[in-house]
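Input record (Table S2, row 666):
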Amino acid sequence: MNNRHLSILIAAALALPALLTTSGCKPKSIGAAVEGDAAQKVYVAPGKYDEFYNIVSGGFNGQVSVYGIPSGRLLRIIPVFSQFSENGWGYSEETKPMLNTSHGFVPWDDSHHIALSTTNGEHDGRWAFVNGNNTPRIARIDLKTFRTVEIIEIPNSSGNHSSPFLTENTEYAVAGTRFSYPMDDDNSNPDVAINTYKQNFKGTVSFVGINPETGRMGISFQVLLPGVNFDLSRGGRGPSHDWFFFSCYNTEQANTLLEVNASQKDKDFIMALNWKKCEEYVKAGKGKKSKVRYAHNVFDEKTHTGTSTIEAETIVLDPKELKDIVYFMPCPKSPHGCDVDPSGEFICGSGKLAAVIPVFSFSKIQKAIADQNFDGDYDGIPVLKYDAVLHGEVKKPGLGPLHTEFDGKGFAYTSFFVSSEIVKWNIQTLEVVDRVPTYYSIGHLSIPGGPTRKPHGKYVIAYNKITKDRYLPTGPELTQSAQLYDISGDKMKLLLDFPTTGEPHYAEAIPAGLIQPNSVRFFKIEENQHPYAAKGEKEAKAFREGNKVHVNMTSIRSHFNPDNIEGVKMGDEVYFHVTNLEQDWDVPHGFAVKGANNAEILIMPGETCTLKWVPDRVGVFPIYCTDFCSALHQEMQGYVRVSPRGSNVPLTFSTGNKAEPTGAVK
Ligand code: RUQ
Ligand code: CUA
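Output record (RUQ complex):
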């Protein structure tokens, strides 16, 4: 494809909704797109549960959201790489460390991909991993609490896009750098001219090891690679268990105007990497130490507190010396998605600008490696011959293929951004068997269990990039949108549109039964090890340490203890450590104070959360519960008196008229 064609393609993509209207692809009415029984298929009656959890990355909102499928009902927003004033995530003293990085506090990111943990390549319902794209990070969400419990920063990386895909037993989450650049490493000189890209810019992929019991992450090793863009990846399974596959674009190594300059070559690469061999080399001491800085943040459910540690070293493997760990396979053209079928034999690359979908055969890859069937090398990495590793090509599938999921019945489903459709094809014969339009310009798609050894099938969900006319308009920005299709028959059938928060990127759907029974209902108060917890009303107190006033406060329906505090002075920092004494499901309490510059907090039963407040004026300030917790919720309130600097009002605290201030003033 020449550049003129390329710009036509891009222009076509931008004008797509108009194009659909004029070309007649768009059904004339909703009725034409949806069959009569669609409503029944997505109707989840009041009091009934959805069949699947759909765990969806929020793109530029840095969050993850959870929907029920088939209803499309929004069940929860999980803040990850974002502050969230609804529950104080990233604002409370306990959660601020979770957003620490080697660049300091970075309270936002751009989260693209979800990976649900697997055992033997099948969903186990334990954790969800999600990537931070901008300031390279991987987060782990505990699916027992639906909370972010760990975030690790990835050094020697810039734009963590091809992440956090997993190996079959969740041994590793991967992180491939989207942007190549001069490494962070102390031995590298980062101050180079941008136009020396070819000489000085490098790529890496990192393998983040995951503890099989606790889920705790740590960077096990990194692999140093030529300076290209790593886009997406998938772990092998079954026969290809030991391998990982990454799509690479910008093999032209352009550093400006990539829309043209990184679209020159007819083929870029899928990279095949043998992570088992890498493990062996690391064990044999073949890695080199790289001096770097990166944050590792862990949230402890016993202390209900996050801590951030700055780590200083990684191990880097160099495939120029370790010849048998990495191979490139030519792939037309600027591949985006790189997906492995449930059997582990087929790997398909979706060239955004390609007219075919190439499907590679794992057994042929192994044979080509054994026979050294190479087409030279690329920057020291052997390039396998395209014909030697190809199972075949899906011909004329559509325009702008992005991602592929599998139904476990021998079919693949590929999203096409430019032609705005999902195309179903047979993995063996490579024949297209069905196509349906999406509204509009689908990015990712998800079949429940689609990236596992045993897909659950039944539905495919489209995550669309452009909403246009699908919903009531809400000003210049429309809601983001997903669509649900029935795939239980031969033909895909549109069932439902549902709005999403942020920009939905990748998502996974998992049967409710794998998560629902494990859901934590409350934290046991006797296990609360927060240093400022008041585990009963008798333990409630206020005390001073210099200009810091600590209030170890309890909340239970429907009062705080203490609820009257005096003796705070201008210049003080007040720390409200609120312990929710409830031991019952679904009874959080909120806490808010007038003029607080951060957020309210929402404290789960049995948990302690801390809100820091620096009063800016003298006066009496109300505090109150923000979550309607009982018939007397509006009574759940109190006051804090703030006196001038140097005032001699003693620090006292009380609850109830009888209990006069008993303040143990330090
Ligand atoms: S990407 S729309 Cu950031 Cu996953 Cu393909
Ligand atoms: Cu506690 Cu309202």
